[in-house]
Amino acid sequence: MDWKAIEIIIKREAEDAVTNILYEAGLKGTAIESVENLIAVQDDPTINYFDQKILDFDPNISKITGYLPDDNDFNQKLDQIEHDIAQIRQFGLDPGDYQINVSSVKEEDWATAWQAFYKPTKIGDRVVIVPIWENYEPSGEEVVIKMDPGMAFGTGTHETTQLCTRALDKYVKDSDCVYDVGCGSGILSIIAAKLGAAKVIGVDVDPVAVDAAVADVQLNDLQDKVEIKEGDLLDVIPKDQQADLIVSNILAEVIIRLIDSIRMYLKEDGLFISSGIIEKYVDDVKNSLIAHGFEILEVDNQGEWYAVIAKKQGE
Description:
It is found in: Cytoplasm. This protein is of the alpha/beta class and 315 residues long. Helices cover 32% and strands 31% of the residues.
């Protein structure tokens, strides 16, 4: 079976949303190219040569590439992708004057084509995201997270994932119960467990994401610590089961709507790590948290993305 490569050139702030759209459409081997990612690997000792000219790529632009079977359903799926990308402006994201390019790929070429994009990626001081086909020996206190980039849209390279990872590394304690709201591929649930959380529950309304998260949990042998549930937070976790820490890497407007529920599900002095926030919504998120009885502990940023870490205060 031959394949079609779909290449989308888009503004960076819409990168996460578009990657999710491609994942929903069933694309395999989705890879993201951006200046941020290129800078992160230029000092990698396994890279023999790094052409500085590639850093001339516009830092505000991402190129996302994925693959679909070249079959009778292709045109319908491509139309759906184009429709969904056009709709993301309503969520406050600007895709810019994006381009969608399509090319043909022979069966014997497609697998190696997308795997070339993925190498072990270190986030913060300890966490290393490793593709399943790579052999990686951790050094010191490094914590290895195995991911299959061909299956999931959350593979650790995006700034929001990295912001949440740094916060989890700083705040997770060994006895903690952690909820991951909007868990996607389950990467933050897995990271929380690998960093020592005693129990993690990942929740997502998307059944396709839930299937991917369950597979990623099994890939990391964490079935005894991480549980993935399909549905809304209020529907799948009893209200009397509170967490020490809740992490949510989704859009700012969704975070604001969830804050009241997040507070209900947090223990006294519990922590809320939120990301997926662009600069113009940071104050909105902070003000909503304060209005609901949270103390802002920290605001971190990477590129144009922000994370807000807050603590639940007493009544």
